[in-house]
Amino acid sequence: MTTELEAVTAGPYRETLEQLLVAMRGNQRLSGDSSLVWVRRLIGLERSGSVVALNVCTDDRQALFANPAGGEPLQGRAVDRRVYLARADGVGPLRIVDSEFARVESC
Questions:
Q1: What DSSP designation does 7 have?
Q2: What end-to-end distance do the CA atoms of the chain give, in Å?
Q3: What is the residue-wise DSSP string for 10-21?
Q4: 29-88 confidence digits (pLDDT tens)
Q5: What local confidence, expressed as pLDDT, does residue 94 receive?
Q6: What is the maximum alpha-carbon separation in the chain?
Q7: Which domain of life is it from (predicted)?
Q8: Is there a contact between 10 and 96 (Cβ–Cβ < 8 Å)?
Q9: CA distance readout (Å), 25 to 68, 81, 84, 105
Q10: pTM for the complete prediction?
């Protein structure tokens, strides 16, 4: 977990992210870029006490990732995410407190 991720995450989401990062250790990027295609506000959605919800689409299809099982590298994917943000105890900066995602063909 980097200090940058610690600064923008909180609660159970951070704990889940830490577990995911450990599980993905063998899946590093080998080449290519990621693109943040768009960010949109989702009005009226709330989860885990959030005050803001965003829809974010990233495109990693031009990237190759190490295959943790060995063999040929894995092709990146496009991912559509919903990210929920809240303030710790109602004060301070917004932090990601929950998220959900789906792999998509393109953004």
A1: H
A2: 27
A3: -HHHHHHHHHHH
A4: 889 998 999 999 999 999 999 999 999 999 999 999 988 888 899 999 999 999 999 998
A5: 95
A6: 48
A7: Bacteria
A8: yes
A9: 8, 21, 25, 25
A10: 0.83
